[in-house]
Amino acid sequence: MANAATSAIRLHQRLPPFQLSRAYLQQTMLEDSFHYLLFSLIFLYVYPFIIIILPVVLFSVLHSTSYSLTLLDTLGQNSWWGARLMISVVEFQTRNILRLAAFGEIIIMPTSVLLVFLGKAGIMTPLVYYQFLVMRYSSRRNPYTRNMFYELRLVAENFANGAGTPPFVRNTLHTAIGFISRLASPVPPQQQQQQQQ
């Protein structure tokens, strides 16, 4: 609930004044804050799992460290050197934290399907979460989910094409890779160039 409230506030700050139009709705759906507002609403009534809150916690750590640095600068340059050291460690690991959050977003998809079969989530949870994952994949500001899908695909293909991989596993992996690739939303050319860099 706290993440939903925070995401709603951030979304309000990033958007122009409300207009009842298709363009405004499209602009809203492109914002990362909207994605995490949707994420929070999807899992509001789902049985709590640590993997579900992992991306939220990681993004909270990143946002709180940047705000904490602003507060410490207000207090003075030499104040709270221990806190500054912790903040610099988090800032140094920002890329890895974002990659881990993206990995968590991807792993939640099969987890949500499993939760449906265990009776701990509704049938709509994986369907709506798929839409969230499509939005994260095509995000303009955060390419980490798209990059993580690409890295996982490379790992799976390398494993499938290995000499010691049994034919059944190889065929299953290639089928899964093909299925997931067909589900991926098209990426604008500008984002594809950024991904290849």
Summarize the structure in words.
Belongs to the PER33/POM33 family. InterPro entries: PER33/POM33_regulator, TMEM33/Pom33. This protein is mainly alpha-helical. It has one domain. It is built from ten helices and no strands. It starts with a helix and ends with a helix. The C terminus is likely disordered.
What characteristics describe this protein?
single chain, 197 residues, mainly alpha, transmembrane helix, PER33/POM33_regulator, transmembrane
Number of domains: 1
Quick one: biggest sheet? none
Number of E strands? 0
**Count of helical stretches:** 10
Q: What share of residues are in beta strands? A: under 5%
Order of helices and strands, N to C? HHHHHHHHHH
- Basic shape: globular
Structural class: mainly alpha
Distance between the termini: 37 Å
- Weakly predicted, low-confidence segments: 193-197
- Rounded mean pLDDT is 81
- Determine Rg (CA atoms, Å): 19 Å
Percent in helix: over 70%
Subcellular location: Membrane
Pfam family, one: TMEM33_Pom33
Keywords: Membrane, Transmembrane, Transmembrane helix
Main location: membrane
Q: What is this structure, in a nutshell?
A:
The chain is mainly alpha-helical and 197 residues long. It has one domain (45-183).
Would you spell out the secondary-structure blueprint of this structure?
Blueprint: H1 2-14, H2 22-30, H3 32-42, H4 50-75, H5 81-92, H6 94-117, H7 124-137, H8 144-160, H9 167-183, H10 189-196
Helix pairs in contact: 1-3, 3-7, 4-5, 4-6, 6-7, 6-8, 8-9
